[in-house]
Structures are given as C-alpha cells and as structure tokens.
Amino acid sequence: MRFSKWRNLLLTAAATLCVANACSDDPNGPPRNTANVTGQYHATTFNLSSGQITISLLTLGASLDITLAPDQTTSGRLVVPAAAAGGEAIDEDLAGTWRQSNDTVYFSQTADTFIRDVPFVVQGSTLVGSETSAGDRVDVTLSHYGPD
Fold first, then answer.
1. Any domain includes 22
2. Where are the alpha helices (DSSP H) in the chain?
3. Is there a contact between 107 and 74 (Cβ–Cβ < 8 Å)?
4. Is residue 126 situated within a structural domain?
5. Is residue 74 part of a domain?
6. Coil/strand/helix, residue 11
7. Residue 27 has pLDDT above 90, yes or no
8. Which residues, at least 6 apart from 21, have a Cβ–Cβ distance to it below 8 Å?
C-alpha cells in the first residue's frame, strides 16, 4: 500500500512534467532560451548532394541572402543559375515571415522554394538547415553579417 502511494505520486509528477514541457515547446507559444536571430544572413554553405556526389551551388554562382526583421518579416533573394538548377534559372523573392521556436527558425514565403520547408537550427551566429527529397539533399548554412 505504501509503495502504491509513492508510485502514484511519481507517476503524477512525471505526467505533470511531461505536459509542462510539451506546452513550453508549443511553436505558437513564447520561445524559451532563444537567441536574437534578427539581422542579415547570407549562405556560406549551399550544397546539393545526390548519391555520392556533392556540388557546391555557391561555386556555380548561386546565392541566398535573407534578412530577418524584428517585426517577423523577411526580405531577400534566392538565385540559382540555370546550369546549377537543371536548365532553368531560379530567381525568387524571399519576402514573407519568420518565426522562432526555441532554437529553430521557420520561414513562410510566397515563393515555392525549399526554404519554406526546412527548419533552420540556430548554431551560434548561423542558421543551419537541410532537406532531403527524392534522394537529393540540400544543405544550407546561413551566416549572420552586418547590422541587425
């Protein structure tokens, strides 16, 4: 009987802790322990991998620049030359919004690019994201530069 009381107390405490942690990770709730990520970013890594082959899209002339404004809006541009994009050049406006949940930044944009599908993890002064689709993988590191 005494064991049962302790067991129930521990289970209740554990359940309460789990619920509290789940609520604090709600992406629509206020972030906790987050870095200020507003500012200007540019891609310092932008790689496409297919099988055993990895290509630096930056080396082929691609660029990705994005600004995260304090009002949760974004501006910027994604450019990928035709040779690196499979025959048709990409030039997309990255206007939209961003939100942060803990150490992850999410983008919502009109432009239909991989950026709006990829969670970017805050690592120091960089945002790091990757996506795998149909066996191909895109890896991007956005490095903070300039004034916030």
1. no
2. 2-24
3. yes
4. yes
5. yes
6. helix
7. no
8. none
Q: What single string gives the DSSP state of each residue in 52-87? A: TEEEETTTTT-EEEEEE-TTSEEEEEEEE-TTTTTS
The count of structural domains within the chain is: 1
123 assigned to some structural domain: yes
Number of CB atoms found within 10 A of residue 67's CB = 17
In percent, the amount of the chain with pLDDT more than 70 equals: 75
Rounded-to-integer distance, Cα 17 and Cα 57, Å: 45
Containing structural domain, residue 68: 39-145
- Name which of 32-36, 63-67, 141-145 the model is least confident about: 32-36
User: What six digits make up the tokens of 19?
Assistant: 């619920």
Q: What tens digit of pLDDT does each residue of 95-114 get? A: 999 999 999 999 999 999 99
